[in-house]
Paraquat-inducible protein A
Amino acid sequence: MSISTNADSHAERLVVCRACDWVVTLPVRAPGQAARCPRCRHHLTEAAQRDAQRPLAWGIATLVTLGLVFCFSFLSFSAYGVGHVMAFGDTLHALIADDYAELAVILLAFTALFPGLYLAALIYLCSAVQLGRTLPGQVVIARALRPIEPWMMSDVFIVGVLVALIKIISLASIHIHTGFVAFCLFSVLMLRTVTLIDWTSLWDVLAPRGSLPTKIRPGATGRAQGLVACHGCDTPFMADRGPCCPRCGKRHVLHRVNRIQLTWALLITATLAYIPANVYPVLSTIQLGNAEPQTIAGGVMHLLHAGDWPIALVIFVASIVVPISKIVALAWLCLAARRPRARASLSRTRLFHITEKIGRWSMIDVFVVATLTTLVQAGSLMSIAPGPGAVAFALVVILTMIAAHTFDTRLLWSAHTHTFGVSTDPSPSEISHSA
Ligand SMILES: [Zn+2]
Ligand SMILES: [Zn+2]
């Protein structure tokens, strides 16, 4: 069944940009074309797809590949005549055995559990479209899927594994097994599958849009017209119709001013957690009976002294530059939201989107610790154990990601006029081509 159901009616193609609250008319997209907000450049839709077959096929292939990761050995190492073969699932046992179950949960959830659930749900939704039937819970499942996307970190994990291997390659002999190759393949397929989902068209098939009053026009803010953009299904609806989206049931508020206090609270907690993350060791290396604890900064210095400056740079950027920049940028945006300036709205929104996108890459160091802990297991001859700094650092990354999620970029645009005819902002949406 086709999912390209772009409605022809002008009213049925109205959308409200969730980044800047501008009402725009969604153009009829040809396959491969995406639409962006003319005011803030935020993506209003993904690239249009011809049908639900492609994401269904890619989703099944990706899920099968993820299953293969658990069927084969992942990596092996040998040092001082002692060897150890690691399976992907062993990370769970190794981290729990070291009393770091929280790291095991983070690793498994972000690299396998969330992607697996996402793929299974996607296959379910695409099957509903292909069969032309309404399946139980399809609206609730569709609404729950998109918030999971930033938390799927298979690509970050691969970089973490590579960094871990380079860190110990001079101390031990390392071999890559089929499980790791399958994981790399899974990560590539996962990235491709996500780009093949056209949520706008998928929602048009899964649940019909509610009608809007004819007085609603593009070229003004949704707030000025009593219109709300649903963050669950991206459909605009009248705020006076109640607190829940009539299409997907998600609760909403018009302008979440109070949430800025929540963003502040999360940022302050992340800043506090960043102190133990740097003071306590993130891992301890035991070599020939001698334990050597290592902090984040100590690890960077150790790599620099060993001449591995590219890896030192990766860890320095991911574990020090990115978290600090993210906390500072979000704090500044929270302050800026109180004093919105029309001229600065676009640059501030761009800063937010950059901050939001790079935050997940800070998880590299946590994945490095998890990989080394599981792989390097040769007792007192040579083994690596996680340190409390790793848990605190994972907490920093998670808290800053949630803080970014709670920040409402519409506050950055509140200095603009809300009414028709005065603003110089453009109203029709823009088309861009995507792969
Ligand atoms: Zn916008
Ligand atoms: Zn909705």
Notes: Residues 101-131 form the longest helix (31 residues). Residues 1-8, 418-427 have pLDDT under 50 and may be disordered. The pocket of zinc ion (ligand 1) is lined by residues 17, 19-20, 22, 37, 39-40, 42 (CB under 6 Å).
